Fold Putative maestro heat-like repeat-containing protein family member 1.
Amino acid sequence: MIENTSKKHSDRLTTKRMKGLVMSLIDGAYDKQKVVKDVISLSLVNIGKKKSKLVLSSCHSYLRKYTKLPKHHRTAILHTMEMVIKDTLHDIPEGLAVDLIRLASDDLTGTKDVEPEWQTAASNVLVALGRRFCIQVMEELLRKFQPGIIPHFFVIQTMASLAMANSFGFVPFLTSVLGTMMPMLESTKQDNMRWVFASALARFSESILDYIANIENAPDPSVKKMAFSSQIYSAFSVLFNVWLQSKEAKLRLIVVEALGHMSYILAQNKLEEQLPKLIPSILNLYKRQSEPFYITQSFCMILEASVAGGSKILDPQLELILNQLHAQACIPADFGSPMTVKNHNELLRCFAVLAVSFSDRVINFLLAKLEPNNERVRIGTLSIFRQLINSAGPHLEDKKSLILSGLKIGLQETNNKVKQRFAQVIIAMAHHDYLSLEGGNLMIEFIIRQCSLQKEMQPTSQKRTDPEQIHNETLRSMCENVLHLITTTISNMELVLWPFLLEFLGPVKYTEAMGAVCKNAAHIASKKREAQDEDYTIEFESNANIPKPHALVARLMVGAGLPMNGRGRGIYCLNLLQSLSPNIHDNIVDMWDTVIPKLVQYLEDNLDDEEKWSMKSWEDLLLKMLSKTLDEAESEDWICELGNEFCKQMELYSEYPEEKGCAVGLGFCASSHLDQALAKLEDITKKQMTRKSSGFFGLVKDKSEVDTERVKCTVMLCYGYLTLYAPSNVISSRVEANILNNINPHFANVKDTSVKQNLIRAVDLIGKSLHPDHLKKNYPFEKKTSLINHMQAYMKGEGKKELNNETRALALQACATLVKLDPALNEADMFDLIKTGTDCLFILPNGPFLSPKSKDEISDQQVQEWERLMSLSMDSLQQMLQEVLRKKLVPDEFMNIFKHIELWMLSLEEIERLRAVTILRDLLEFYLQNLSSVGGGPSAVTFMGPFLARLVPRCSDPNLLLRGLAMESCQLILKIALRYEGKAADYEDKLVEALTILKQRSDTSDPQGLFNNISDLSKVLAKKIPQDQLQAFVFLLIEGLLDAQSHCSSGTCVVMNTMFKTRGSEMMGYTYNGVLENLARDASLLESIYERCLDILARNIHYEEKLDNKSKQVLSRTAALLH
């Protein structure tokens, strides 16, 4: 007994403490700091979830006790009460609920003025309680809603909110509420009260509809919509005839919204009476309102109410409605504005509503709108069709054929924006089984045609482009996704697509779409093959448009031959071949099931990696698969038919260059039949490459001259590939006698660029065929100097201002190949080769050349092509110089190359300096990477002093990219010196590595920052340049003082100054005298030195000379003579 007493005492104590805690929290509910206020509110809510009565009663007593509590504090407490009530509504005793209702009601109307935050919080408490205690809440509200007296704003607002929160509890009071409200509508003059009455009528109408929609669960199943139609009609008349005319935009919008909701409640005959005036009035509001969404939303509700049950009461107004809505729907939605998008969607819904009763007229109206040559109209109309197809399905069931036929006009569309929307319509039709009807295959063909689109030409930089333009690439990607979507997600589309998709593999115009077609056809085929569907087997005879098995194999293997084309079509071509194998030939099924997955895996592993990918390896793998296929087929007739189909594939690529294919093919023949291939080429050379003339004394050119050049172009390339693929053990004996003797006569006087380039390619291939790695032995190729001379002649023949073909790049590549061969070039020939290579490239302008007299503009495509050719040519020059250096990787050889580069490093043209330094930087990196074991210390790097002396001025060049390259080049030279000291390749010297930071800092336009950077560079060089390189460095650096770029000469001066300060003692004697001699060689430099010396003397030596007039005259005349 004592224990029970103790426990009760403890519980009372705990409850008392809890109540004290709650009261403390309520007291601090409106802290000045928002974070604290939120924490207190959350704490009260969490306590209220377990002790709702304690928290709610404490809030009630606190608010009753402190009636003059600041409004913000009361609002915070009411807000907390609302959240607790929502969480624990079913645990609240009725007595406490009544107390809370009265408290909230008093706060709701505590002041006649509208206090939105406070009164909204009180209203929300009443609505929360009204979900369970609706009768008590309504009784309290009706006490303050008396006939003849305009109620408080928030009394009406609370009833509106309650109507939405608890329609079952509210609707029984609605007749009484409307009876009291109706007389007030006409007498209400204030806009804010009209606004709240209109809002309430909208919510009351929604509440009625919700009650009727859930009538099976309603407390009174006998309630009918018509019970309220008379009262709602009275309110409708006031709102439409009086309030809608208000000048206040916000009031008009809420009135329009209310009219929409109320129209559902009106009797059909009453609604029909209002429509002739109502529809034009609503439509006219579009002109008066900046935000049309609420107008469209309301209008859609009115339309929906009008067509309910298939009613035709809109018939007289239909033409007006369609034209007005269509004009609105054709205005593009601004996706950056949510309200604009919502309005557009409501407009589209209006058409779906109208289609319920007027499907014929709506469809015919829209089909007629597809014809005008207006982009917006066609896009808007197609958007409406998409909405109708998706939303008005049952009502359009008998109109499917009409819609499909009418939409065929879109198949010939050329505007990408319209085509994009049309593709979206096709998706909708696919989902609703339109495409299985006659003509549905044309819609699939349209999608595939867009998958074949090529990337359009780049517009000129001067031309303005449409910011909303849909590019071919974008449309193509979308249609590829559309095709995949309808293939993989719409099961009934298999009947349409299979085997129809295979028809698109044959025509060449669909080549670009091959990847998309194969991907989706393979998906269906593999699915049907696995399920052993009856329709998997293709009846080729009855499907005349589908390529026959041999044609499919040829087409798909050719497609897989260039696997990266067509957006990676190779994988999809192979997958389709495997999926179709039982339809191709029974004998190959098992072999293809084994081999093709391995080929697919090879592509997946290597295709996206440039370093791993080898086109030659891929071709070999594909040819092996073809060879195995022929073996497995075991039928000469089948093999011959397949060969014929491969021949037909050549006709599909008539626009592609054929000479390489012919040349490679002949090269393969030569691998087994060299003498026959040579004889054939010699025969063609004699019979078809001799140009004939006709006419008077041969002055009229024969029409076959162009054909002769094409033959020559092909034959030259054939000789190259024949040499490359011929047996390596015999080709060296045939090169000079049978190949070069036939090619040599054609090197001179070549006018046709294609012939010239194929001659160069032939030389390159001949050089590769004679390399020791290919021959497996050394071969002294004596004729290589002659071939190099021809290559140089072709480079020199190119213009100095134009770069419009690959001749330079190809010739440099050929020279790089020939340089590798023995015997080595003599010094004079090597000099000529390097000079020709550098001179023909460095002198080119920085972009496409356009004659000053030309009226044309340089297009972006021309710029891109020029940049491609320049990059290719620079890479080729770099490759050639690297081969020269690789042949003899010693400092003296590097110095021989540098002699041709350094002059361009001093050029007045920025682009020429940049190209020269770029080449030097890459050569230095190549030299460093290819060094093996070397020694002799830094002194062995004989090019160190001259290279650094030429690079120092460039380290402060006006071109920021050039600065970085020059700084990096200095670092590479110092790293090379470290290797000659015997350091390992991965050794890091702190001073040398610091140049990486200097390179990063060189990208600055701040003079002081640049000075500091060069100063730091000079300190590194002062410590790293060996004494025996110092003289060459300083003497050549003096020339940098006269650099045409002021930044460069200043930077040189900084380095020179540091060198004298830190290493001056080492330069005493002959070095010192030599420096003075070099300084004295340049007149302008010498004059500057004299002026500086005289200035120093004038400021530091104080001497007043006393001369008579005669002496002054002598000195004056002497000075004049010297000047």
